[in-house]
Predict the 3D structure of the following.
Amino acid sequence: MVKPLKLGIIGAGNISKSHLEAARRTGAAVPVAICDPLLDRANQRQNEYGIQEVYADYHDMLAKSDIEAVVVCPPNHLHHVVTIDALRAGKHVLCEKPMSFRADWAQSMVDEAKKSGKILQVGMVSRYQPTVQWLRRQVAEGSLGWVYFARAQYVRRSGIPGWGSWFTRKDMAGGGPLIDIGVHRLDLAWYLMGCPKPVSVFGVTFAALGPSKQGLGTWGTPEWDGYYDVEDFSAALIKFADGSAISLEAVWAGYTDPSSALHLIGNKQGAQLIDDKVKIMTQVDKHDMDTMVSMPKNSLESGFSGQMMAFRNAVRGEAPCPAPGEQGLEVTKMLAGIYESAQKGASVAL
């Protein structure tokens, strides 16, 4: 049996519950300490999950607590500095997505992980879904042939989180739906394609509904005395060195049908992820044929559970890290490039 991790949680917001539930379900980690400057929130998590230690300052937790790994899940603008401090303190790190919204910050995280010899895993939780793992094997074995194009969408009709909070402030979040939910679909498409090297991006962003408080969702806590200066709709085309490309749409709010579709188009077969099924599209005797392959049901819980077990296994040397900082850095470069392209109105080389 693989020994569970002694785990600390930095940031006690909503997403911390997903990590704590994953630790409880899998037994892959024992949460020993939790930290948040809002002590009431940290105390609530302590009571919910039986955590021994509570801190207001993560520096104190890193210095005093008997932990060997941390989950970093404060607001986005803090990911890089907290991760670097944790690595320097000798802790392995599972950093929530996005790894960062600046490529230079992400690079500094990767550099520190190499220097420290500790694991830096990025929270690309969608990679661990049963359908994704099955489809990744199909692509790796060549069943789809060369996957030359992917169409990835994460589109909400009305889903702006926490209006006025850090979610909608560029200096704290780095952006809107592109960096919040688009990161999941971009990473997933790129991962399934085998992580080809990105070479250029073209992107557009819009803020059509959010500034006037339209299209609001239920995630996060609104701060009505705050402000909104990020996009609510984004689209991009990412090109890769092998000639392949990804079309991406990430939308918090828009007058369109919701979608979390992901299509892979290869020169032998195509595939579409549909909830807990994979639709395979091909030809037999010159006739189009579709086959539905059912999997164990996808869920947010299965993704976080798989991620926590993978993190433990990487720390214990049982398996390679499945979402290393180097891959998170490439995703960060793509996201930052899309924002730069949208600002310039022109394609950007990576």
The two ends are 43 Å apart (CA to CA).
